[in-house]
Amino acid sequence: MSAESDKSPIPSPPTVVLAACAQLPTGDGDDDGLIDALTAAGLSARWLAWDDPEINSADGVVLRATWDYPDRLDEFLAWAEGVDLLINSASMVRWNSDKGYLLDLEAAGIPIVPTAVVAPDETVSIPEGEVVVKPAVAGGSRGAARFTDPQHAADHAAALQAAGHRVVVQPFDPAVAEGETALVYIAGQRSHAFTKGPMLPEPGVEGKLDESGLYLVESLAPASPRDEFWELGDSVLTAAAHAVGVMPANILYARVDLLGSGGSGPRLLEFEAVEPSLGWHQLPETKRGPAMARFALATAAALARR
């Protein structure tokens, strides 16, 4: 027998797809460099739109830029349930895709920005003062608006309900003027943070959409949050994991958006675990590479567990 016949075939590397959408087939630019990091971790990685049939042949699918899902929610959730290994899990995606999850977190003891969620067939109550009205299922702040006139707020809510949306009503928090603090977690561990400038303009003015039309343009900057912000972020991640029956370490990525300024403690504005921007480019290159490497290694570990 020849030496060549004794050689075992070299196994192919596991395949992973970064799921995007037709309008943003390789993401919004935030994840540039992630394919290289995944390749360095021993994976075969590429981008595909989530509704591309080729995606079904991958060993794992990581949601990164599926920005069109709010307009195709039922189709998207059905697809998510059918993916062999979806990262984050389909149960997390279903729970986190509707902002009603905020009420679950509040019930778990998390301080949130006061939130009311109203079904399409229910009466919307507009509180006094400036408010924000938005659809419960939305991405990139589309459909969200600020109001000082209660009738205008009620009209916007009614229009959303007429289109079949559950509606979220929140008092406008002046702390937004100082920006949101976004905490990024990788595999359940603290990674990095950045700030997001105010996205909603003055009442009566529409926000500026990205050229894709899928999200409002954001202003981002690096951040070094106080310990109390990270401590609340840890509690949010734990509560979210419990809500869907997973371990925090098995949540590959998550972003916790907090408000808080001056003497006020932080409050949860959003918990994002479907396809949030992770602010990689708010990190200096010396830290960005290692952070992406941790993401890639955690992805490889998720495929290995499968």
From TrEMBL:
Signal peptide: none
Keywords (A to Z) from UniProt: ATP-binding, Nucleotide-binding
Family matches, as PROSITE patterns: ATP_GRASP, PROKAR_LIPOPROTEIN
Listed InterPro entries: ATP-grasp, DcsG_Biosynth_Enzyme
Ranges where the ATP-grasp domain occurs: 102-301
PANTHER family given in the database record: GLUTATHIONE SYNTHETASE (PTHR39217:SF1), PTHR39217
Stated name of the protein: ATP-grasp domain-containing protein
Organism: Gordonia rubripertincta (Rhodococcus corallinus)
